[in-house]
């Protein structure tokens, strides 16, 4: 569990102006806090790829946006990420809640790319989006940090530093549900 | 109406608006305009000019942002019509130049060519200021109202198919805004916007 208030504190410390994304259950507590936060605009989009393009425009226009999406939406976003935020060198932190990680962890963690085949990806006891997440991030050139508990919060600050130092999007895999205090 | 008849009066009236072009309007616009607030959504991701322009508009509420979208591109991201209205971007004017074809790949028909009603789609998404034009005179007469009133505004302009070829970027490009990389173009636009935005703190 990650306390949503601590995440929000870090977003405020980083000067985040806008959070864009599509809601999911793991992010609910953080979304509830963001909806009541006057210093950050929360913009719900219709599809996650749209969020990468809007965020790129926000950055070029002088704002400091962050994405909050699920790993399913990340997979949907491939060409938008590639053609906007990555190709425009936008220092965009993408908070990615991860569906299916607990079951994947019980089966040995993320598989090697060579193991990703139809047999594995169709197993009913595993969530294929979890199996594909890290391999996809690697293939798309998107570095990532992992935020699994409150003690990992410095990783979120690290993601902002990496994004700005390298002028590129950086993902933060949020591997636990956010919760209110 | 020809594409030139759609773009030429707009180029003379854009003022200090940011103009985002894509696909078939990229090079024709560059033949009419060479402005630091012009941006080509080219060598990027098809279908994402309107949402990129929405981000610019939300970041710069005191400045008009004009997006010159294509019909095929608009069909790729119809959800953005809903997002634009929900966001309340009052400074965004979204043009769709409808020629019913994917011109850059050889004028193949778009899905619904001759039947799809973009103005109706925009109204259904919640746009209240919607225009549709087939005749150049009526379009040019309405442009001052289109550009001066509150947004978000949606304008569909039916134009004849042209013969624009594939887009690229690089020093050999005739269009000045296609010479830098996409990343450099984004940096240049950001600098142009923020330099003209006295008092803003850049992060």
Task: Give a short summary of the structure.
The complex is a heterodimer of chains A (181) and B (203). Chain A has helices at 4-13, 28-35, 48-60, 71-76, 78-86, 101-106, 118-121, 128-139, 153-166, and strands spanning 2-3, 18-21, 41-44, 65-70, 93-97, 144-147, 170-174, 178-179. With 181 residues, chain A is an alpha/beta fold.
Word description of this protein:
The complex is a heterodimer of chains A (181) and B (203). Chain A is α/β, with parallel strands linked by helices. Chain A has one domain (2-179): Thiamin diphosphate (ThDP)-binding fold, Pyr/PP domains (Rossmann fold, 3-Layer(aba) Sandwich). Chain A is built from nine helices and eight strands. Chain A has a six-stranded parallel sheet with strand order 3-2-4-5-7-6, sandwiched between helices. Chain A has a two-stranded parallel sheet with strand order 1-8. In chain A, β2, α2 (28-35) and β3 (41-44) form a beta-alpha-beta unit. In chain A, α3 runs parallel beside α5. The termini of chain A are close together. The model of chain A has no long low-confidence stretch (mean pLDDT 97). With 203 residues, chain B is of the alpha/beta class. Chain B has a single domain (3-195), classed as Thiamin diphosphate (ThDP)-binding fold, Pyr/PP domains (Rossmann fold, 3-Layer(aba) Sandwich), CATH 3.40.50.970. Helices cover 38% and strands 18% of the residues of chain B. Chain B has eight helices and eight strands; from the N terminus they run αβαβαβααβββαβαβα. Chain B has a six-stranded parallel sheet with strand order 2-1-3-4-8-7, sandwiched between helices. In chain B, strands 5-6 form a two-stranded antiparallel sheet. The longest helix of chain B is centred in the last third of the chain and has 14 residues, at 182-195. The radius of gyration of chain B is 16 Å and the shape is globular. Chain B starts with a helix and ends in an 8-residue tail after the last helix. Mean pLDDT of chain B is 95; it is low at 198-203. Classes of the chains: A alpha/beta (181), B alpha/beta (203).
């Amino acid at each position: 569990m990650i306390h949503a208030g601590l995440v929000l504190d870090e977003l405020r410390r980083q000067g985040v102006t806008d959070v864009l994304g599509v809601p999911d259950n793991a992010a609910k507590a953080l979304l509830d806090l963001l909806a009541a936060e006057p210093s950050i605009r929360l913009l719900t989009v219709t599809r996650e790829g749209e969020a990468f393009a809007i965020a790129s425009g926000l950055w070029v226009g002088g704002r400091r946006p962050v994405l909050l999406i699920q790993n399913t939406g990340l997979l949907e976003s491939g060409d938008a990420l590639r053609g906007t935020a990555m190709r425009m060198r936008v220092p965009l932190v993408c908070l990615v809640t991860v569906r299916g990680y607990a079951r994947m962890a019980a089966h040995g963690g993320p598989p090697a790319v060579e193991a990703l085949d139809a047999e594995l990806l169709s197993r009913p006891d595993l969530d294929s989006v979890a199996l594909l997440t890290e391999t996809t991030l690697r293939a798309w050139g998107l570095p990532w940090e992992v935020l699994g508990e409150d003690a990992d919060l410095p990783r979120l600050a690290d993601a902002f530093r990496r994004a700005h130092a390298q002028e590129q999007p950086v993902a933060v895999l949020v591997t636990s549900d956010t919760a209110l205090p | 109406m020809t594409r030139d008849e759609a773009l030429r009066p707009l180029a003379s009236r854009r003022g200090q608006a940011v103009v985002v072009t894509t696909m078939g309007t990229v090079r024709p616009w560059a033949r009419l305009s060479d402005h630091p607030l012009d941006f080509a959504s080219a060598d990027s991701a098809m279908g994402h000019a309107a949402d990129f322009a929405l981000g610019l508009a939300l970041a710069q509420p005191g400045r008009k942002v004009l997006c010159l979208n294509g019909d095929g591109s608009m069909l790729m991201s119809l959800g953005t019509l809903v997002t634009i209205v929900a966001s309340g971007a009052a400074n965004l004017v979204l043009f769709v130049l409808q020629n019913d074809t994917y011109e850059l790949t050889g004028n193949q028909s778009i899905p619904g060519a001759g039947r799809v009603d973009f103005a109706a789609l925009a109204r259904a998404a919640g746009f209240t200021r919607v225009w549709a034009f087939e005749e150049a005179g009526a379009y040019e007469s309405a442009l001052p109202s289109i550009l001066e009133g509150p947004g978000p505004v949606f304008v569909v302009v039916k134009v004849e198919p042209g013969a624009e070829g594939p887009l690229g970027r690089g020093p050999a490009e005739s269009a000045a805004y296609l010479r830098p990389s996409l990343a450099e173009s984004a940096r240049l636009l950001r600098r142009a916007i923020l330099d003209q935005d006295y008092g803003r703190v850049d992060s």
